[in-house]
Amino acid sequence: MSNQFRVHAALFFVTVIYAANYSLSKDVMPQYMTPFGIVTLRVLGASSFFALIKYFVAPQDKIIGWADNWRSIICGVCGIGVNQLLFFSGLNLTSPISASLLQTIAPIVVVIASAVLLSEKITVPRALGIAVGAVGAASLILSRNAQAAIYPHATLGNLFILANATVFGLYLVLVQPLMRKYHAFTVLARVFLVGAIVAVPFGWREALGTNYASFPLKIWLEVGYMVVFLTILAYLLNNWALKYASAALLGVYIYLQPVLAVLFAVALGKDHLTWSKAGQATLIFVGVWLVSQKPKGAPAAAVPAEAVMD
């Protein structure tokens, strides 16, 4: 089996995991568990796992220095704690298709954050992409459709998802220097620990107060899916694939995730694809494609492509 095939297989599996989550989470929230309760289980499970793996694979590797330690704390707050609280709160209030489309704008946020924090130049195509993507996102957030009765607070949910994509895009820019300097599991163990410290105070009562005895087997499997597959396995596969995949290849999977999310949502009866959503998706996709274009003479950027992660 060639390494290129394994890279494709890993990225595709990660994309399927994230795409399916938009619909599977709807079975769990809010009937069986609250969004913050799910986040608590997820970050506690993942932080424990990555701390254990780090102990065995990189026991001597430590984040050192005031600047790197503060950067890792900010990454944990943005990329894990606040990110997950916003994502599941938003997904609870809006439709799977809307959530998956809004998540796609993370590369646009990365370009803006890189310009502000790293002084990277925003070219004319990228500026146009930011504008087109913003129009698509704004149209999706503000639209009211036939599902208003099902998701009466969809606008608020969409804003939560937009904020989630924004803080995650910021995380992708901030975490890059740490990933280059330290072992991946050293960074993951730290950011998930910080994320747990941020998220658990919001959800521990809800996690403890959940009536687990009422869970049918299907719900247990879906909760296990969110902890094991969505968090641990997806992060492991994604970090391995990022070492070998090109930005262009990863860009393909950025677009594939919402497409698969739509297929899952429609097949499972969780959502419906309308012409208006298709038009909004087109605007967002065009915007992401434009901002993903490498400026002439610039090295290929790896960070925007990491937006295949949730």
UniProtKB/TrEMBL annotation:
Pfam families (UniProt xref): EamA
Keyword Cell membrane among record annotations: yes
Keywords: Cell membrane, Membrane, Transmembrane, Transmembrane helix
Domain of life assignment: Bacteria
Transmembrane segments: 35-57, 69-91, 97-118, 125-143, 155-175, 187-204, 219-237, 244-268
Organism expressing this protein natively: Hymenobacter artigasi
Membrane topology type: Multi-pass membrane protein
The name this protein goes by in its record: Drug/metabolite transporter (DMT)-like permease
Localization per Swiss-Prot or TrEMBL: Cell membrane
Domain EamA positions: 11-140, 156-292
